[in-house]
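User: For a benchmark we're assembling, each entry needs the component sequences followed by a predicted structure for the full assembly. Here are entry 17's components. Please fill in the structure.
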Amino acid sequence: MELDKIEEKDLKMGKANQDVFSEIMQELAATDRNIIAVTSDSRGSGKLVPFGKNYPKQIVEVGIAEQNLVGVAAGLASAGKKTFAVSPACFLTARSFEQIKNDVCYSDNPVTLVGISAGVSYGALGTTHHSLHDYAALRAVNNIIIVAPADNFETEQAVRLAAESKIPVYMRYGKKAMPFLSQENKTFEFGKGRIVREGEDIAIIATAETVYPAWLAAKKLEDEHSIKATVVSMHTIKPLDTDLLDQLAANGRPIVTVEEHMVNGGLGEACASYLMQKGMHNKFKIIGIPDEYTVTGSQIEIFNHYGISEEGLKNTALNLLNQ
Amino acid sequence: MTDKELKLKSVFLRKNLLKYIYKAKAGHTGGSLSCVDILNVLYNRVLNVDPKNSKNPNRDIYIQSKGHCVEALFVTLADRGFFPESDLETLCQYQSHYIGHPTKKVNGVEQNTGALGHGLPICVGEAIAAKLDDKKHRVFTLLGDGELPEGSNWEAFLSASHYKLDNLYAILDNNKQQITGYNKDVMNTDCIREKLEAFGWSVKDVDGHNLEELEKALNSGPFEEGKPNFIIAHTIKGKGISYMEGVTKWHHGVPSPEQYELAVSELTEAGSLI
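Assistant: Structure for entry 17:
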């Protein structure tokens, strides 16, 4: 497998993934009038104000009505439009869950559902605005790809692929600027995780905005403890890259998963389920938001509280190695 | 097809939907009987659809929001040539595509429906797409009055008028009953004309069992330029079978052998009087 690992010297700060989404949407719309964004009073938070100004016939506003958002998007997709339904992930995947299940997935209308400000991006706005259920909910629905890009490169590639996908896609990302965890000119495929750092002692499988703290933790493990960790950006939660899981588990190293999602039903449990059924007995730890009332605070404070951080993940790795 | 043949078709479709519900020992009998005249008129006098080219991009779109009354849709599609009627022998059987709600695996079915309050938002999307592409086809949906309390319908009512979708036709099968009893007792949806007009729709009332009235209304749109069209079809649940008309238990009741024979004889007699 071709590695896509990034060296520290290459690490540079990018934009927020939502800004990349906005740019690529405009680029695609310039040459394809079938590109349509559907919003629920969410064009501002979805960074689609310039898109709406430049392509007023390619944005459909439904107001704050998420069920209708997804139903209308399904109708547009059925009529041949390359439709992106853009709304905060918390509302998009809960309020309109039945529309996603029936009108998009079951009816095979290839809408791209874009969950903005995902996970705990809204921080202190609280649980109403957090999406810690979306991987679990949509993993239980047939006929949808679940993608959580880690950086600008993955976001750009995911948007381009989603526009042409014949299968519905759910894509989610947060609000803050992300460092590039990709080398230039690398390939990107749905369902194929990317190794961003390589080491044989332990594997950290992360997704979306947790890949960066996982990468930092891996570096610290090496610098402070001479422990070499592989870090994976498992950008596609479904379908899961089981070939890569086989490869990671093969040498018996401990595995840590990390996600901005409740520990129930997300990336970690998906990996655990696969590996257990394969008969693998690697030490295994799922890091995410536990099944409790989520602590209040900013995104970074919540991350730190639950150990989704350089220090927290380093300690998790050490504890697992010492068990 | 003459007007007389169209009326006879309604009798034939009623007989057929009862036949397959009776065979399958399952189905939504009362609602299928209340909406089958609407479907007969739609597929034989209104919709520009071609069974041999069912994905023609210029076709009219019909999406049945009250998906549970699929038996009325299936017998109408079969009669119109979308698939052999013999396929319905498998209705609700293991591995059949002919299940208890519409599925796109059946030729002529536009969307998978069955959960209520879903048809209209999808139709809004279809109608917006037609406007964006300057296409002239029309988009139709059939709503049950029992599904009106679903909030998604009201979200879609708002957006249809906001986008001036005069290419959109929502037909209400206003049979006044649902599984628990009368709508007015379960959740009152009275004054539907006033409600829809307040939401910016143009509304017509028709006798939902009068084929001429239905055809006239459905082919006379847009009722007002720039407004979506709403047709309140006043119907009777269980229409055409004396012991089913207006009796709530026939919502998804299946006739016994004796009841089935009586229903067939009543329909045969009704046909002979046309």
